[in-house]
Every structure is written in structure tokens, then in C-alpha cells.
Give the backbone structure.
Amino acid sequence: MVIRTVSNYLRLSQRQYHIIDTLAYHSKNLYNVALYNTRQHYFEYCENAPIFQTVRPDIAANVTICIGSFLPYTRKKDFPYKDLSNYVQSRQNENYPLLHSDVAQQTIRSVEEAYTSYFALLRMYHCGELSSQPRPPRYLDKNGRYKLAFPASHITMRNGHVTHGMSRIFKKQHGLTGEELTFKIPPHIQPHQIREVTIVPHHNGKVYTIEFAYTVPLQPTHLNPDHYLAIDLGVTNFATIVDTATGTASIIDGTYLKSINRWYNKENARLQSIKDKQGLTEEFTHRQSRLLIRRNNKIDEAMNRFVAYLIRFACDHGIGTIIVPRWNGIKQEINHGAQNNQNFVQIPYAKFRRKLQSKCELFGIHFDDSHDERYTSQVDALALDPIQKPWYGRCRRISRGLYQSSSGIVINADVNGALNHLRNVAGDSVMTPIISSGRVNRPVRIRLNYEQPSCRLNCNVCGNTAIASPAL
């Protein structure tokens, strides 16, 4: 069983919006209170402590405080030091009784999760894996909102709908019955699958989404882990793929993503100009918020279709391993020109990787990201040159999108990169049948059809050659 999450935008009545917005405001206040308690505890006892050194001998037998620990959430009855519990300290705040007890506790736990992530990054920094020192979690904006997380054990589900509980004090203050926050469960989710329902604010509460976390069984598949599919990511050529099962190469077209971002940037600049002339100080106007939501929805739909195509291709051909190289920090301090920077930075590659990895887990496909892209675009894959800094440099990129091998063959530059990604993981032994067949020399360009409302995956395959479809 694996856990999946589906997110939908809420269409709220005026009364529902007022209730959720008020609860999210109290959740933000409680988060800041819990964060204040944790930060003060950290600054007092842990900030200047050496790594893994105990600074409170009086409680060393039960609690060890070091650079990797902080004020715990725990509220267990057998916990000997109640003053060191964030739950005990935060529940005295006036915002706690206004929230449902489970929602309030999940909000306090979020502070613990934030500090856990902070200390994990701090360890990476001390080990030299991060270039800049991470900062402790910060307070939320005083006019902001925070999520409302409802565990499945404390929500009511009947007739395909879910009802979120509210505290008695809050219902009494606002004259509520407790049935106001009732929403429809997505049809593909059964009530027994749901583990948590979360209401998430966006753009300071202008828009709210509801997220259903649910469990699904693993899909039974019979795939060969020795069959590989290597992916080289780009911009105009979003994903260039080479596989060992068929020995072919194909390119998933990325011009649609560039078009979405270009349209968004122009329209947002126009709305920003209007906002500046009106002297508004808020970060997002309602029109900018709607514009960004529409853009994000289109990007998400495109990413989902890219991932669906790759997973279906892998399952149809018995491919058990997908190779996607690491791109750590590739967008930091990039300098490819203003237009290319904008095209590249606005494409959410990390989201694509997360979606693909999640689907691979569901279908039993191994997701390999153990190597980076170092020198893979420069090294001659057809000549099986070692993947290191080549003596010939970049001179074999004879033109935009084309790579000339020492054997005289001209191939798409992204295909050459994908072949080197394949060599990094599978070795050179798998290259002989691919090179001898010559099918990677003329990749097929795939343009997915995004505008169809059908849930089935539609795609148009264009037989353009590598020369007619160069890479960026």
C-alpha cells in the first residue's frame, strides 16, 4: 500500500469561506505560538551547543538536547518533563480551543516537522553538502493563513461526502450547527481509503484547496529491471528518452510549457502595472491570483500527461528502470541570457521528478537518480568515450541541437546526453545493439494533446528528424 494525495479547488459559499478563513487564521496564530516556544527553547539551550553534546545534565537521563534536537511535541502521560512539551505550552493559548483538538494538534506537530527538516539541512551543511547555511523556521505573516489538517479518525464520511468537525466553542461563538463544512469526496476514492483531509490556503487565503490523502494498493506488474529508459531533460525538448527494450529515441515536446509561461508573464506584467498605478500594496490581487492558479493548473496537467506517457511506455515494453540524472542547484546563478533564463527557471522540473518517482513506486519501477549530468552533453556516446571532461571540449556540438560523433554520425545532442545517462547506470554493454541498429539517429517528436477533456492520454506523433527538431 502506498499513500497518494489528490488536490481540488474548493468552491465555497460566502458562509463557508468565512468559516474556513477564520479557522485558518486561528491555525496561523497557533502555529506562530508553537514556533515561538520552540525557537526560544532552541536559542536558550541548543543554538551554541556542539553537535551531539548534552547541555542539560539534569535531564540527560531522559532527554538529550543537542544541535539535532528541539522542544518536542510529545504529550505522553509518562513524559517526565511537562515543561518541555510544546503541546502543554501551546494549548494554553487562546487560539487552541477555537480549533478542533485534532486540527490544533496537527498544527503544533507542523512546527516539529519544520524543525526536523531544518536540522536535517543543518547536518547536510556541516557535512559540506550545502553551500549556504540554512535558517531556522520563520514566523508566518500576521495577516496570513495556515492549513487545517483533519485526520480520518475524526471526520464524518457518509453518502460520498466528508464533514469537517469544529470545536464547540467556535460553533457557539458563530452560531453553527457543525454541518457547514461538508464537501464531496472525489469519485475514485473510497471512504475507507482516506487517511487525512487537509484544507490548504493559497495567496493569503484568497483561494483554498482540499487535499485527500488516501491509500492505494501497488499495481502488479512484470517488468524487467535490466531494461532501462534514460531521460534527458530540457526546455524545447522537455524530455528526450532512449530505451534498451526497443533501442529507439523519442522527444517529448516542451514548447507548450514555454507558451504557457510566456502568456502568463505578459498578462501578469499587465496586471502588475495596473496594480502599481492604483497604489495597491498586497502581493497578489484577485485577478493575479486567478491568473496564477490557471497557469499552475495547465502546468500540472502537462506534467501529469508527460508522466502518464512515460509510465505507460515503460509498462508496455517491460521496462523496469527509469534513469533521471540529478539536477541539484542547477537553477542557482544561471546565466544563459534573460530570455533563456526565464524559459528555463519557470519550468518545474522538481515537480516532474516527484510525480514520476511517485508513479514509479506505484507500478514497481525502479527510479534511478544516482548520477548527475556532468559532462554527459560533451562526451561522445556513440564512440563510448569515458564520461569525464573530454579533451575535445564542446567542439563536437557542430550546431544548435546537433552532435557529430567521431564515427561521422550526426545525432540529436539531447539523444547523445540520454545515451550517456544510460551508460552511467547500465554500462557500455547495452550500447552495442542500440548503436548498431541506428534507430536512435532519428528520434520521433511526440506532441501530447493537452486540450482534450478526455481522461485518456492523447498524443500526436510527429516524425520530424533531429535536424528539424533541434534541442535548446
The first helix runs from residue 14 to 46. Residues 224-462 form one domain. The chain has two domains: 2-216, 224-462. The mean pLDDT is 84.
